[in-house]
Amino acid sequence: MNIQIAPSILSADFACLGQEARRMELAGADLLHIDVMDGHFVPNITIGAPVVYCLRKVTKLPFDVHLMISEPDRYVDAFVDAGANMVTVHAECPSADEALKQLRHRGVKCALSVKPGTPVDAVYPYLDKLDMVLVMTVEPGFGGQSFMTDMLPKIRTLRQWADQFGLPLDIQVDGGVDVNTAPLAIAAGANILVAGTAVFYSDDPKATIRKLRSGRA
Ligand SMILES: O=C(CO)[C@@H](O)[C@H](O)COP(=O)(O)O
Ligand SMILES: [Fe+2]
């Protein structure tokens, strides 16, 4: 399976985000994961569409926007206009369905995410309409937390459903991914790994990205 690595800019130096994005591009990242938090869906606040718009000018990396906001339907257009290539909304949000419809209408890749406490069954009705499912392996809100291995069965179930129905579904894992936990996620069936701390704080991000992609500890 082709494994893609998406460094999460939540762990970047926000004083020089443009340089940080370029640093990840040069290190061989496949995507740039952009965590958007509203202080309501999660207890943290990060960035909005204007920052995405500015970043779009400095890197060619596809933007993988992870919306941790309570009303994603209100902001989908702004993030697509700003340059998002794929957008993830949370299954726990009442307007997730509407946001997915808007994303499909705009022609960008769309994904649903489940928090650790949300059963993976929540995404089942949407499977054939999704490009990706994001399995959170930490409680969303902050970087630098430990990978929850009890989320691995969700990844296995998703891969089994994708195989069973012949769906070209990407399975992304986010939270606590490092060189030790990446092989577990890949073995379970994940093919896109988000990594914040592990890549941004690495002395050699290029080597770390290569190692994460290899699936070997
Ligand atoms: O969405 C989130 C956190 O809510 C993530 O994307 C984190 O930013 C990942 O950071 P690490 O756990 O890899 O440090
Ligand atoms: Fe994220």
Automatic annotation (TrEMBL):
CDD domains: RPE (cd00429)
One Gene Ontology term from the biological process aspect of the record: pentose-phosphate shunt
GO cellular component, one term: cytoplasm
Residues annotated as the enzyme's active site: 35, 174
The keyword Zinc is annotated on this UniProt entry: yes
Top-rank taxon: Bacteria
UniProt keyword annotations, A-Z: Carbohydrate metabolism, Cobalt, Isomerase, Manganese, Metal-binding, Zinc
Pfam families: Ribul_P_3_epim (PF00834)
Stated family: Belongs to the ribulose-phosphate 3-epimerase family.
HAMAP family given in the database record: RPE
Functional summary from the UniProt entry: Catalyzes the reversible epimerization of D-ribulose 5-phosphate to D-xylulose 5-phosphate.
Protein name, entry field: Ribulose-phosphate 3-epimerase
